[in-house]
User: What shape does this take?
Amino acid sequence: MNLQKYPQMALSVEIIIFALHEQSLQVLLAQRTENPYQGQWAIPGGFVQEDESLDKAASRELSEKTGLEGVFLEQLYTFGEPQRDPRGRVVTVAYFALVPADAPIRENNLSEAAHVAWFPVERLPRLAFDHNDILSYALRRLRNKLEYTAVGFQLLPEYFTLSEIQRTYEIILGVRLDKRNFRRRILGANIIEPTMYKRTGEGRPAQLYRFRLDAVAEVKARRLFP
Amino acid sequence: MNLQKYPQMALSVEIIIFALHEQSLQVLLAQRTENPYQGQWAIPGGFVQEDESLDKAASRELSEKTGLEGVFLEQLYTFGEPQRDPRGRVVTVAYFALVPADAPIRENNLSEAAHVAWFPVERLPRLAFDHNDILSYALRRLRNKLEYTAVGFQLLPEYFTLSEIQRTYEIILGVRLDKRNFRRRILGANIIEPTMYKRTGEGRPAQLYRFRLDAVAEVKARRLFP
DNA sequence: CCAAAAGTGTTTGCTCTACACCCATGG
DNA sequence: CCATGGGTGTAGAGCAAACACTTTTGG
Assistant: This one.
């Protein structure tokens, strides 16, 4: 074929994997086993195969790193500065993933001996390549997205209490919210439904809710104009 | 370098170029001069050079196709299905551009003999590759973006009347808006300022405004919750 | 019975929406 | 003086924000 006359490059996908742990928003990072940046922390990822779509490459990498399937995964942005990888031209399609708090992460996978660990987003190490930039872009996008879609549920287990969602929003957005107003709003939005279960523990048992799969979970932004 | 062990691919950029012409939102398309899809209309674009960033490649292509520099240009999405180009693996980073209604488009450029033409978005031909999908995604994103940022000004000349902005919004969103409410809102948003000029023509002359460069042109979306 | 977290309404102010008439200019 | 588009205010409804006490359970 006549594509060879055009410059050929390596393409990678990288996945910013967010989860809530211990009352903070955390990101899964992988320690590099080779040069360049050997030993430094980086956003997990890998190269796109010849016959593989970008989405497939991303979910394959996600499952290789964490063992997870079927979690929320969305393309974020494509980074293509010529000098961003010292080995040569590598263009990276960044994705972000939201994994439920109770998801069983298998941290050391067969195919990858890489050491991985969770880091709270406020206390990130210096990352390899341009990964600090990529991560802060992902974080901005997550916060933004949280404000006009119901994507926050992706970070919760299947059954959750109203206080748990509220805490989720408070953690990610970094604000305190009024309990009564929050409940009125979320129940009015008609995107969750009560279940027959309750969570017991300290204090009065709480009603467990779950996300409604048929919910239209997007808010019309208030237009700048009309 | 050791990048050669990873699959290498061709990378292209394509630019969906929007403008307002004759009371409708139009897109600039290029007729393909070679196979595959010879003679069919396609989104203009080209391959990314070895030492060129994605943004640079996009603005180079835009200026080759239209002669324009410095117009609004934003990365849209990256399309990477393995079979989307019959010649082989080509991953495309799509951008979209908004060009002012009065911009002088030089339609036939030296380096490209390609025939280009404007098409209203409601009456598009069948396009080459997966370009119909890409275009409808771009359109959705433009409409969305219009609702919470002041990006609509990118489609207007430097000086414009309030009626002209209102018509811009009506055309793109496909709705009718109330004149008084629209004006109250846009003036309250503090993103435009009156100038010393008026536009004369039929009827009473209209005050000309311009976009304030220091304006914070983003609306906080109403949160789903709080 | 005490500690802990769940659950529940009302009032006030603001924002959005609907709506109709006069004004300035050119022909 | 007439046609054309530009420019202006107000009242009513719906939404958002502030605010404190009672309920249910486990220990």
Notes: Chain A has a mean pLDDT of 90.
